Amino acid sequence: MKRAIPIFVVLAGLLVAIAAANPFFLEPAGFLAFLKRVAPLAILAAGQYFVIVSGEFDLSVGSLVTVEVVVAARLIDGDEAMTWPVLVLLVVIGLLVGLVNGLVTTKLRVPSFITTLGAMLILSGAVFLWTGGAPRGALSQGFRVFGREGVWAVAILAMVVVAAVLLMRADFGRTLVATGDNEKAARLSGVRVDRVRVFAFVLSGLSAAVAGILLGGFAGVSAQVGQSLEFQAITAVVLGGVVLGGGRGHVVAAIAGAFTLEALFTLLNLHGISGALEYAVQGVIIIAAVAVGGLRLPALRLTPSKV
Amino acid sequence: MRRLLVAVAALALAAAGCASDLPPTGASAQPSAAPATSAPASEAASAGTGAQSDFFVQADYDAQLAMRTQTAEGPADKPWEQAIAPQMVDTAKYKKDGPYHLCFSNAAVNNPWRQVGWTTMQEEVALHKEIKEFTALDAEGKDDKQISDIAELQSKGCDALIISPNTTATLTPAVSGACPEVPVIVFDRGVETDCPVTFIKPIGGYAFGADGAEFLIEKVPAGGKILALRILPGVDVLETRWSAAKVAFDKSQLQVIGVEFTDGDAAKTKSIVSDYIARHGTIDGVWMDAGATAVAAIEAFEDAGVPVPAFVGEDQQDFLQKWKDGNLTAVAPTYPTYQWRTPIIAALKILKGEEVPKMWNLPQPKITQETLGTYLQPDMPLLHYALCGCESMPGFPGKWGGK
Q1: How far is B297 from chain A (nearest CA, A)?
Q2: What number of CA atoms fall less than 13 Å from residue B19's CA on the CB side?
Q3: With contacts defined as CB-CB under 8 Å, which chain B residues touch A120?
């Protein structure tokens, strides 16, 4: 948890800066609006955390979010009665994609980077084929309420955070971190490494389904809804001090990373800086965060002896 | 160290993988007959609108604004057959006996506007018994694919070739190469050559942009705060819309508090508008260069619990429905999808030796409060574009996804 302290300091600083630039942020409605906007990314970051801490990547979540929203719109097509069946279907799709990613990575021994990159391309290609390039249909009001009403989005976010913390405190959490830290050691001490990793991918798929439901609710149907979300989720996780390659980092810090990233975007936007710069900022963050994490060890080794 | 490199490479690849290479025009796109010749940079950036676009061409602007009030020639109930100020060209040398084989190189069907148009074109083909074959290739938004599509179609024995170019400059040599082989008809976006027999387009982007801006200037009291939402900078087909709006706003008493880029993304649009509402309290008018995300922008006001201000959208059904349900003060400039009917009609005219306009300027109506009722079609899909001119076609409404 010690690694996580810097991210909370940065987050607090950003929140103060936002409040200074825009006092509306301190009012309940303003803060609720911020939470609502963070919720999808925070949930995706939690899902991505499970995969990253186990030593893998999930690059497919962005495309999966798009698939969820496009499928929902096409199947619901404005019909309120379809809301709940489709919600269930979306969760099943998320779980299934996660399961396939996990099985291909562990059983077929395809590196997760390739597996999920492939899944990303397959999913976006499938969406394109099915829709002919532009989404059809419409979401029902019953569906949209989850992403549009701030209270719902925040309640779902809170549930995800609690569930993630409980999972990490359970046996699963310990074996997951052990797997990411040292796969062989974990295997020798009786951890079913493959099963743990598959479960991590399933959780990531589930997080994409929930994020898709919130994002579709927030702004309606769009074929670009998931664009670059996998990148943002990984940035958030890294920002939270979680080590790429696995074995170290806390899920709450990963979620705080998502808050920090979104706070940073909000602040940039408040100061009239937006658009392409968001990508540049993410790029700098990801390189800096990984570089700082990597520099620490050699720095320690160099200092003694030679003086 | 290796781990770090792998991680960075992974992320770079991820970013590249999801970056779309489709043209960013969210809803529609209008041609630029003349490329980016620079404009007189006389405009002062006093109204918060920034510097004038490099794409602004005063003569085109003047011509398009004048065309808005000119009466189009042709049957009034069939605007897709009408032409504004046509200069007819003789086509006797292309005359041949039917039946005909028509070919079409399509830039893409990657947005709802193009989907509606493409459906409409196929139905137009079905109306004509003298067309024995219709070969269409979809370039999927890629210039290189469209260049090879055009070459491939020339070997298929087409009697006429219809081209909707993906981009203006890059496709020009391919179009020039096809002209000597077969009569060419270009529509939607333009090319930098006049070798096609006819170039079909609605009036254009300046008229579109000005229609929206003038509405806001009329409806919003002096000093009112305007938020302008654009898809992307640097795309000629969108720059003209904004540059015409900028000219109008600069002359007005309105205050443009922001010009933002949405990438045509609904969630981003909604977030941007929410931020502006939070920062400025009230906004008195919203101008958009395309209506595809208009509903998301309106929802930002609804969710913030403030009245929806005067709005500029487009002729998509979701916006029209919102307009009626919310009793909004709104206008919808259009870039009519009925222009997809015209190339088929033009091709047949050319092959029958009938004269056609060299520059076929179609009327480009805007939807106002008075005409909203005629264009709102609750049985059509939310992403349907009202000005398809397709209501009397045999496949309507099923082929367009309506009930």
Answers
A1: 9
A2: 9
A3: 14, 17-18
| Arithmetic mean of pLDDT, B202-224 | 95
Q: Cis check for the bond before B99: say yes or no (omega within 30 of 0).
A: yes
* CATH pick for A2-15+38-290 out of 1.10.287, 1.10.3470, 2.60.40, 3.30.310: 1.10.3470
Q: Do A290 and B4 make contact, defined as CB atoms within 8 angstroms?
A: yes
* B126 touches B396 (CB < 8 A): no
Q: How many other CB atoms are there within 10 angstroms of residue B42's CB atom? A: 7
Give A106-129 pLDDT, tens digit per residue: 999 999 999 999 999 999 888 878
Inter-residue contact B347 to B124 (CB < 8 Å): no
List phi, psi (to 5°) of B137.
-120, 135
- Amino acid (1-letter code) at residue B383: L
The per-residue pLDDT for B47 is 67
Domain locations in chain B as residue ranges: 71-203+336-364, 205-333
Residue of chain A minimizing CA distance to B265: A224
Candidates B5, B11, B21, partner chain A, best to mutate (most A CBs within 10 A): B11
Single-letter amino acid, residue B347? A
Contact B163, B346 (CB under 8 A): no
For residue A298, the chain B residue with the least C-alpha distance is B1
pLDDT digits (tens, 9 = 90+) for A241-283: 888 888 889 999 999 999 999 998 888 777 766 666 777 887 8
Residue (of A87, A104, A42) closest to A209 by Cα position = A87
Mutation to test the A interface, candidates B382, B400, B403, most A Cβ within 10 Å? B382
Task: Please report which confidence band the pLDDT of residue B84 belongs to, taking 50, 70 and 90 as the band edges.
Answer: very high
**CA nearest A212 in B: which residue?**
B267
- Under a CB-based contact definition with an 8 Å cutoff, are residues A137 and A77 in contact? yes
Contact A224 B263 (CB under 8 A): yes
Is B71-203+336-364's fold the same as B205-333's? yes
Tell me whether 0.90 is exceeded by the ipTM: no
Q: Please report the DSSP string for B271-287 in residue order.
A: HHHHHHHHHHS---EEE
CATH architecture of B71-203+336-364: 3-Layer(aba) Sandwich (3.40)
Residue A220 has its nearest CB partner, among B15, B263, B266, at: B266
Task: Report yes or no: A225 at the B interface, CB cutoff 8 Å.
Answer: yes
CB contact under 8 A, A134 and B271: no
The neighbour count for residue B279, using CB atoms within 10 Å, is: 16
Of A62, A133, A279, the CB nearest to B108: A133
pLDDT in tens, B85-135: 999 999 999 999 989 999 999 998 878 899 899 999 999 999 999 999 999
Closest Cα partner for B318 from B396, B402, B378, B392? B378
Could you give the CA distance from residue A131 to residue A41 in angstroms, rounded to a whole number? Answer: 25
- Partners of residue A24 in chain B, C-beta under 8 Å: 278-279
pTM attached to this predicted model:
0.79
How far is it, in rounded angstroms, from Cα A13 to Cα A23? 15
Could you name the CATH architecture of B205-333?
3-Layer(aba) Sandwich (3.40)
Query: A62–B18: do the CB atoms touch at under 8 Å?
Result: yes
